[in-house]
Every structure is written in structure tokens, then in C-alpha cells.
Design goal:
Layout: E1 2-3, E2 13-15, H1 23-26, H2 31-44, E3 60-62, E4 72-74, H3 83-89, E5 93-102, H4 114-124, E6 135-145, E7 151-155, H5 156-159, E8 164-168, E9 174-176, E10 178-183, E11 188-192, E12 215-220, E13 228-240, E14 250-254, E15 266-268, E16 274-282, E17 292-296, H6 297-310, E18 316-317, E19 320-324, H7 327-332, E20 341-346, H8 351-355, E21 362-366, E22 369-370, H9 374-382, E23 389-396, E24 399-406, E25 408-409, H10 413-417, E26 431-434, E27 437-441, H11 444-449, E28 460-465, H12 470-473, E29 481-485, E30 488-489, H13 493-505, E31 510-517, E32 521-528
């Protein structure tokens, strides 16, 4: 199942790159300044101090009228310390050294601070026209041990393409790790090490109990500096990031500083339990600006269980392309609430097609659980075991339906990309104008001129768009193909005109179009037909 929603193009979401081990030397010149900045940042995190008057031996007490959820202070007004927590969990937080082979001139230059990059580049570009030779590249990340059998969790991108993986404990013990399995979609990897001595471990907590404002502690290996500790709060919950492969992850946003090399490191709650794994940051410069993202512990736990048992992760598959129900789309369909997932395309012979799904259906619930949006449906279907029958509530042209679907196994990316729409004939007038759009018939010449995919075999080609129209505001452009208007299939430009006329006659000021873009991807667009 494919989610067609996208993030705004402002800012930069990036996975935390693996810093080179030799980068430790490169950042030495900036260490003093960094200490000052980090120190100031640490003081900024402290809650307001209130004097607390009690008798007897100093103990930890609540600061706000007995509310045990409030920040806790010592009676001498000093902020509480994370030292006991860190001392307990740090032994199980490991450094991970990844060895790969590269032919790049210098694969580590992206990790070098910008002020020094030009200086080092002059020594790393191929000299005398010689091509760079394959060489070994070392990089570092973080991880944590989850049981005494030696299972270690980290990010997939920390160990991706590694020829050799070494796990280093804080007590300096080193182990060559076996890669048990990876799940690139959630960026989770599971390693296994074997030790003849007991291994320290940490346990997963319940991220479902987290609240915005809760304290968290991040431990990791930023820039190769092992067991570095930072603290902050939960800034937000349920962050959805469309980074190309994160449709199954609802991130925890934290402001505890995390940097390159923190990837795969754990985020702890005040009980010392892992409630997340640091994976991404939002930053225009590549360094921490206090916006980091952790994969929730509940998701990691489920993924690790499958990796342990099978070495890979299987997810449920419905066989539809979906998109959000926007307020404009809801208005065009006469729906009050912009909720649910709109079916933009049904994969031929897929589970949904066999169950009777149609383009334009709106999925409102699955197995009795309400579907909030397209992302929510994607995740709920993924959690249904393959081969199990799911009951989906659907709205079709305003009428409620219940469809039962036997959930399939999600295909790989190549199989998903090969899905093609159906075919139909084409007759009627060759051109028309309506709602700010100029359209023509879908002729072989038009397909060649606009580079339209061979899989698009029916519809009316948009040849021009009035820049003052709502169609232009919604992103329609020449080369897009209108496949349907409302419930009417568009085979000719005249069909589109008739659909607009029918909407106006019915007192509607907007219509819902099914449009094929570029190389055949389809989606619904609601346009105001009066704004021209």
C-alpha cells in the first residue's frame, strides 16, 4: 500500500550519518567552543528552582503541591541528578564500528565540519587524473544490548552494507557481531554477539505512557565519543515523517541534543527503560538544533521479535494506493469530516481487488478501529498477519459498505512499482475547455509529446492550465491525464465538460478528479470550478 502524502519542502530531515573514527581528530579544533555551547544548553534545560522546606534527612520530594508527575528537586533547591540512572544503564549502551569498502575519493567528507571541509578536500581529490581505488572505510554508531544472550539493537543505516561489524562495550570488551536481520523500512537492525562473561542489558519501556514534557535521557556515541549523555524533554508525539521509507513509524520528537554517531543509541525515561531509539534529526546544517526523532520502543520490540524468529519482517498488504481525505476532497464528496483513507488506485488481482474495492472508496475503519487518515490505514493493515481476514468499513459515493479482505504479504519495491491500471477504449471529440483546463484526446501523439506512461490508456490529456484557476493552485499541469470526474469515467474531453456541467447543475462549486501524473501514478484532486 502506498501513501501519497508528502512533507513540506522546508527544512531538512536526515538520518544521523555514521561519523568516521578518524573524525575524532578533525573535530578537536572545535572542542573548546563546543563545550561552552553544550554547557549553556544544559543549563537551559533545568526547570525553575523552588525552595522546599522539610525536616529531617534530605530526600527527593515533589515540587508542586504533591504532584508526583512534576520535576523533582532536592530540598536544598538543587536540580535533581540523572547520575544514578546513567550509572545503571550506561554499561549496556555500546559503540558500533562498521567496516565497508568504498571507491569514493573520501566517503567521510560529509561528516567533516564545513569550515574544515575545503582544507581536507584538496588532499582527497584524485591527483594526476588517477581514479580513486577501492579502500576500507570505517564509521561509528551506537546500539544497546537487550538481553543476556547478546542481542544488540541499532539502526539499519548504521550497519548497512557493512563487511564487518564490531561491538565495543564501555568496559572496552570488543566483539565481532553477527547480523541477525534488518528492516530498512523502520531503520531497525538486530545484531548478535557471544560472550563468556555476563553482559549488561537494558529493557524496553512503554512509550504509550509518554507525555509531551516528560524528561528523557539519550546515551550514545556522537562523533565517536562513547557513552556521551544528554538530557531533554519529549517535544512531541506521533510525528509522521515522509522520508521515502518511514511510513510505518510514528516518531517521538525530543530536544535532548543528538548528533552524528548517536544513531542507534537509546533514549531512556526516568525509570531507566528504553522508550525509543535515536534515528533522525531535523537540521539545515547537519548538527543538532534540538529537534531529534526517536523510533518508539513498542515498534522496535515488534520488529526485533520478527527479526529474531525469521531474520526479516513481513507486513500485511491490501493492494491499494491511498491518499488523505483533505477538506477540499471531503467538501466535493459532501462529507462532513475529513477522515479516512481515499483509494486512489486498486492493484489488479490484489487482495482489495478480489474483495471488491473500487477507486474513490473511502476506508473509515478496519477490524472495528477507526481510520484517521492514509498513514493510519497503512500502519493498521501492516499489523494484520498475512492470510488473516480483515473487515473494512468503506464509504462508496456516500453509501456505507462492509468488505472482507484476506490480507496478503507486502511485495518488495520492484513488485509494487510494476502495478498497472486497467484499460478501456476512447471515442468522441478531440479537445475542450472547462474549469480553467484545456484538454485533448489521449492520442499516441499526445502520449509521446507529454511523455505519458504506456499504462495510461484512457482519459483526457490536460494541454493547458489557466494560471488563475484553482486547478493551477492544486498543482495540475500539462501532461496530467484526467481519468474520472466525480463518478463519471472520462474517455474524451467532452466527458469532462459534461461532468463540470452536471456539477454546476446540481449546485456544486467543486468537483473531484482522478488524475494520472507523470509516469502513471494516480491521485484524487478536488478543484473549485467557479474559480477561473
Amino acid at each position: 500500500m502506498q501513501n501519497n502524502s508528502h512533507l513540506p519542502e522546508s527544512g531538512i530531515f536526515s538520518r544521523l550519518p555514521k561519523p568516521s573514527l578518524r573524525q575524532r581528530r578533525l573535530i578537536a579544533m572545535g572542542t573548546a567552543a563546543a563545550i561552552v555551547v553544550v554547557g549553556l544548553g544544559a543549563f537551559a534545560l533545568l526547570p525553575p528552582v523552588r525552595a522546599i522546606q522539610t525536616a529531617g534527612t534530605p530526600t527527593m520530594v515533589a515540587a508542586n503541591n504533591g504532584d508526583t508527575r512534576a520535576p523533582r528537586m532536592l530540598e536544598n533547591s538543587a536540580p535533581f541528578s540523572f547520575a544514578d540512572l546513567v550509572e545503571r544503564v550506561s554499561p549496556a549502551v555500546v559503540s558500533i564500528k562498521s567496516e565497508t569498502t568504498t571507491t569514493d575519493g573520501d566517503s567521510d567528507m560529509d561528516n567533516v565540519p564545513a569550515p574544515f571541509r575545503d582544507f581536507f578536500n584538496q588532499f582527497n581529490n584524485g591527483q594526476n587524473g588517477q581514479k580513486p581505488q577501492p579502500h576500507k572505510a570505517l564509521s561509528a554508531g551506537s546500539g544497546f544490548i537487550i538481553d543476556k544472550a547478546g542481542y544488540v539493537v541499532t539502526n539499519n543505516h548504521v550497519v548497512d552494507a557493512s563487511k564487518k561489524i564490531t561491538v565495543i562495550l564501555p568496559d572496552k570488551r570488543e566483539f565481532v557481531a553477527k547480523l541477525v536481520g534488518t528492516d530498512p523500512v523502520t531503520d531497525v537492525a538486530l545484531l548478535k554477539i557471544t560472550s563468556d562473561r555476563p553482559l549488561p542489558t537494558v529493557e524496553f519501556g512503554d512509550d504509550k505512557k509518554l507525555r509531551v514534557g516528560d524528561w528523557v535521557v539519550a546515551v550514545g556515541n556522537p562523533f565517536g565519543l562513547s557513552n556521551s549523555v544528554t538530557a531533554g524533554i519529549v517535544s512531541s508525539l506521533g510525528r509522521n515523517i515522509d522520508s521515502g521509507s518511514q511510513q510505518y513509524t510514528s516518531f517521538i520528537q525530543i530536544d535532548a541534543p543528538i548528533n552524528k554517531g548517536n544513531s542507534g543509541g537509546p533514549t531512556f525515561d526516568l525509570r531507566g527503560q528504553v522508550i525509543g531509539m535515536n534515528s533522525m534529526i531535523f537540521s539545515p546544517s547537519g548538527g543538532s538544533i534540538g529537534i531529534g526523532f526517536a523510533i518508539p520502543a513498542s515498534l522496535i520490540h515488534d520488529v526485533v521479535a520478527q527479526l529474531k524468529e525469521h531474520g526479516h519482517v513481513s507486513r500485511g498488504y491490501l493492494g491499494v494506493s491511498i491518499q488523505p481525505v483533505t477538506p477540499d476532497i471531503a467538501s466535493s464528496l459532501g462529507i462532513k469530516d475529513a477522515k479516512g483513507a481515499l483509494v486512489a488506485e486498486v492493484v489488479p488481482n490484489g487482495p482489495a481487488a478480489k474483495a471488491g474495492f473500487e477507486q474513490g472508496d473511502i476506508v473509515t475503519a478496519i477490524n472495528g478501529q477507526a481510520v484517521e487518515d492514509a498513514t493510519d490505514l497503512t500502519r493498521k493493515v501492516a499489523n494484520v498477519p498475512t492470510g488473516q481476514t480483515a473487515t473494512l468499513n468503506v464509504s462508496r459515493q456516500g453509501k456505507p459498505l462492509v468488505l472482507k479482505v484476506t490480507i496478503g504479504t507486502r511485495p518488495d519495491a520492484q513488485q509494487l512499482a510494476s502495478n498497472a491500471p486497467g484499460k478501456d477504449g476512447m471515442t468522441g471529440p478531440t479537445s475542450a475547455n472547462a474549469a480553467g483546463l484545456g484538454l485533448s484526446s489521449l492520442t499516441p501523439e499526445a502520449k509521446k509529446n507529454f511523455n505519458i506512461a504506456d499504462t495510461v490508456v484512457v482519459g483526457a490529456v490536460i494541454t493547458k492550465v489557466d494560471p488563475d484557476s484553482d486547478a493551477a493552485d492544486k498543482g495540475l499541469q500539462p501532461g496530467d491525464v484526467v481519468l474520472r470526474i466525480g463518478s463519471r469515467i472520462v474517455r474524451t474531453p467532452a466527458d469532462f465538460q459534461s461532468g463540470v456541467a452536471e456539477a454546476k447543475k446540481g449546485g456544486h462549486n467543486s468537483v473531484l478528479l482522478l488524475v494520472a501524473h507523470g509516469q502513471g501514478s494516480t491521485g484524487f484532486v478536488a478543484i473549485d470550478i467557479d474559480k477561473t
